[in-house]
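Q: Hi! First time doing this. I have a protein sequence and I read that you can turn it into a structure. Is that right? Here it is:
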Amino acid sequence: MGAIAFVFTGSVLIGIPIAFVLGLSALYYFLFVGRVPMDMIGQKLYSGTDNFVLLAIPFFILAGDLMNRAKITDALVGFAKLLVGRIPGALAQVTVVCSIFFAGITGAGVADVAALGSVLIPAMKKEGYTAEYAAAITVAGSVIGPIIPPSIIMVVYSMTTGESVGALFAAGFVPGLAIGLALMIMSVYFAIKNGHPRRTEKIPFNEAAVTVRKSLIALMCPVVLVGGILSGRFTPTEAAAIACGYAMLAGVVLLRTLTFRDVVECFQRAAVSSAVILLIIAMAGLFSQVLALEYFPRTVAGWILGFTQNKYVYLMLVNILLLFMGMIMETAASVILLAPILLPIAIQLGIHPLHFALVMLVNLNIGLITPPVGVCLFAAAPIAKVSIEKMSKAAMPFICAELVALMIITYVPELILIVPRMMGFIR
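A: Yes, that's right. Below is the predicted 3D structure, encoded as structure tokens:
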């Protein structure tokens, strides 16, 4: 394992994309270390993506892009302004609330940054917010996207561990809202400290009614999507396909903001983005086979259980590990590699598997906004026209707020389990 670790670490340090890091490390093992047939490589690459539930990934990506192109984002922003526009730091609050609403449509953090950032970052700069602050609150809010259902990374976790997608979706509501609340509290603090503007006048009833009516098209998508999955009406893959149909119906027929060219471009981008994610999943599956052949999960379990058998200490160690992994590795790869190792230990220590799943996913999603591999930082930088360094520094207070929320859901498991229990997924 020492040589494989050297190849893996060296590849990461020189900046090779994570999919090829995993592939190169596995190839080195098969060529020089393991005495296994080479045709296993093709078999594992294929079997790693041969799962019906993974079809949801391209559909969710396509649905989010169609919604963005249809300018449904604008309707959500107007509705959010109506709700929280009079709270100190109004546009920062609007950004967080829009992230919560948009999370019910896309299920991906980068999509949230691209959609909301292009609208709200320029608006915040125009009202006197610094560019780095506007970018920081936008990327911090993007963490909510993969936590509140639907969620692409939850689909990957379900594929990896066999956990019910519906149960994962139900468990994501409270953690997502907890992070949103933490960010809103932090935004109020900065608004009072820096004198950020807010709306003081009341919105006339007629204007408010028009805003609500326009936003219903956007708000109905997550209701149909998540409601259908949680009620058992359709599978996550079917729900993702329905979301694409709904997005095209809304954009082409109802709002008339989508053209044929827009739809074609959305399909093209969804194909490329899906290929990237599925390549990572395939390579991670191959590398996880190397770990299994070397009995790495059993070794790690022995180390951890030899160090502690206290579940609270274990959860703290897992949080520290995952925060580090989120900084250096893509989320889907971390889930595929680490979940089969860490989950059995958690179950052995008496931690509910659904509780552990959300702790793991929330933790890794915070990695979306932590350098050096925070992909949401790279998505927001060109929109805000600010350096990664300045944006990362401005995001630190919001990351701390999210870590506080993470600690609360880590040590108060009922916050995660209450909704799945109410919906009958667990007893």
